[in-house]
Amino acid sequence: MRYYLLLNNDSEKDTLYETNVLGEESFEVFYPEKGFIALRNIVHTQPELLESLQILDDHKKQYTITEFLDKVEQWKVKKST
């Protein structure tokens, strides 16, 4: 399953950009991508933006940031090379 990060003015079309891809989960392993790095940066440097973020999966199911991070916590996170 692939997960996407959308900012306030983004639409589903913006999921095509690699900067909006949080990563992909397969067999309980999460493979982070550029969007995951962006999310981490937002959490640490601009937490006021968190309320305007939206997280979607391949099936267009929405997640809160807490719900998404709870899922990631259950998986093994593969480091980027």
What do these coordinates show?
The chain has helices spanning 34-45, 65-74, and strands at residues 2-6, 21-26, 29-32, 54-57, 62-63, 76-77. It is of the alpha+beta class. The chain has one domain. The two termini are 20 Å apart.
Structure, briefly:
Helix content is 27%, strand content 28%. The protein has helices spanning 34-45, 65-74, and strands at 2-6, 21-26, 29-32, 54-57, 62-63, 76-77.
Can you lay out the helices and strands and say which pair or pack?
Blueprint: E1 2-6, E2 21-26, E3 29-32, H1 34-45, E4 54-57, E5 62-63, H2 65-74, E6 76-77
Parallel strand pairs: 3-6
Antiparallel strand pairs: 1-2, 1-4, 2-3, 4-5
Key attributes of the depicted protein:
81 residues, alpha+beta, 28% strand
Strand arrangement in the largest pleated sheet: 5-4-1-2-3-6
Question: Globular, elongated, flat, extended or rod-shaped: what is the shape?
Answer: globular
Rg result: 12 Å
Q: What is the share of helical residues?
A: 25-40%
Low-confidence stretches: none
